[in-house]
Every structure is written in structure tokens, then in C-alpha cells.
Amino acid sequence: MDSVKVIISNDQKEIKVPTGIRLLIRRCCHAVLELEGFDGSAEVSVRFVNNEQIKELNRDYRNIDKETDVLSFPLGEDGVYDVNMDTGAKLLGDIVISMEKAVEQAKLYNHPLQREIGFLTVHSMLHLLGYDHERGGLEEVHMREKEETVLTQIGWKRNNSYYMGDE
User: Fold this and answer.
1) What are the distances in angstroms from CA 49 to CA 16, 71, 120?
2) Cα–Cα distance measured from residue 18 to residue 79, given in angstroms and rounded to the nearest whole number
3) Cα separation of 37 and 1, whole Å?
4) Maximal CA-CA distance, the chain
5) pLDDT, tens digit, for every residue of 39-71?
């Protein structure tokens, strides 16, 4: 991998984006591409929104009328991407993160907001590269393993279960 350009925008006002989050997102994007042996330069967009905005996007693009934590909009398929003609970078796509949902899930899973945003970024980057956990089975297991590998590499190893049921 040559270089990764990560364009980050904040289109919500409800949650203050903590210091260091932009660097964390860049590290996550870079780590995923490195793990995947990505060839060449890449460009990705990450956008912070609120629950109302992500609900609208989820409804418009997925026909699901509720908020979600993160959406991925890949620009490539089967390893073929559009290219930024000025830089030669492969355009991977867009990641949209609901800051409100990220805060809610960080509390639910009892980990820092930074770890939640890191997870959502890694998860979405894998979607941009063609992974799809929604089909279930081995593909879901493989994607989860890659998520945890990357998060562990950048210092956000999972220290508890995501299962929140009664014991």
C-alpha cells in the first residue's frame, strides 16, 4: 500500500468529536488496508452524522426506516475501484457514522467511545473492500476475526463479551 487519504467531516452538532478521533480513524483505515495487502494508494471518506441523518440515509439507500450505527457506501466491486485522476488513488467509498449511536453502543458494551468508533470504522472499511457479514456463516466469522485483529493491532483489544443477555 502506498498511501491512504482519509477525508473526515462532521455534519452533526449533538456529540462533540473527542480529540484524537480523526487520528484513530486514519490508523484504522490504514491498518485494514495493510492487513488486506491493499495495492496502491487509496482514498476514503468518513462522515459523522446524527441519528436522524443516518435514519434518512438508511431509509433512502436500504429501505430500512430506522437509525443504525454505521453505513458503508462502496465505490468498487470485486477489487475494481474508480480512480482519482489527479492522484491515482483508488476511491474506496464512504463511511457514515452516527455519533449518537456510537455513544449509546459504547455505554451498552461498556467500552470507550474511541473503541466503538474504531470498531465502526474497521467494520465499514471491510465492507468497502467487499466483506459482508449479513450473509452469515463463515463470511461473518471471517469478518469478525479481521475486525478484532485490526483493533488489537492498534491497541483496542476487546476485553469483554458483546453478549448482553441475562446470565
Assistant:
1) 11, 11, 13
2) 33
3) 7
4) 56
5) 999 999 999 999 999 999 999 999 999 999 999
Bridge partners, residue 83, by sequence: 90
Rounded to 10 deg, the angle between the 21-35 and 137-153 helix axes is 120
User: Contact at 8 Å (CB) between 54 and 71?
Assistant: yes
Query: Cell numbers at residue 66, please?
Result: 430506522
The cell numbers describing 126, all together, are 471491510
Mean pLDDT calculated for residue range 30-47: 96
**Any bridge partners for residue 71, and if so which?**
96
3-class SS of residue 103: helix
> 7 forms bridges with which residues in the sheet?
45
155: left (phi over 0), alpha (psi -120 to 50) or beta: left
Query: Per the structure block, which three cell numbers stand in for 50?
Result: 446524527
pTM confidence score: 0.90
